[in-house]
Amino acid sequence: MSSDEYLQAKAEEILAELNQVLVQLATLRAEYNSVDEAIRRLERLPEADEIFERVGVLYIRRDRDSVLLDLKATKETLEATIKSLEKKERDLRETLSRVASSTQSS
Length: 106
Known about the structure:
- The chain has two helices and two strands; from the N terminus they run αββα.
- By secondary structure, it is mostly helical.
- The protein has one domain: Orthogonal Bundle (Helix Hairpins), CATH 1.10.287.370.
- Strands 1-2 form a two-stranded antiparallel ribbon.
């Protein structure tokens, strides 16, 4: 395998990984927005309102504050994961750029 073929294969590998990261980011951002909207709506509800959480095919009654705590923890986890994937995306783009410039200079 020549160095050009190797670099081309490496670029394709990086591009495939980048595409996976972008799909994961889109999914996580959608979930983050959903959780964020749920938090905002719950915070506007009066304290006495009942909250039902869907667990599989069942709805379980829970108190508002515990649901809010769980949602906020989920939001924090999603934020950390999204930041990590964004860093990975940047790193992959930089690596892809270096590989592409190596291919052009060969």
